[in-house]
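re the bet — no i am not wrong, look at it urself. input seq straight from the record:
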Amino acid sequence: MVFRIEKTASGIKALKAAGVKVLTAEEIYRL
C-alpha cells in the first residue's frame, strides 16, 4: 500500500513511529 503523506518530516516520522517502512515517490524526489 502507498500512503499519501505530507512533504514534512513529521509525516515520515509518524509512519516510522507506526512501524511502517514506506518509500514514497516524494522521498525519491528529495534524494
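see?? Residues 9 and 30 are 12 Å apart (CA to CA). told u. also DSSP finds two helices and no strands in the chain. so pay up
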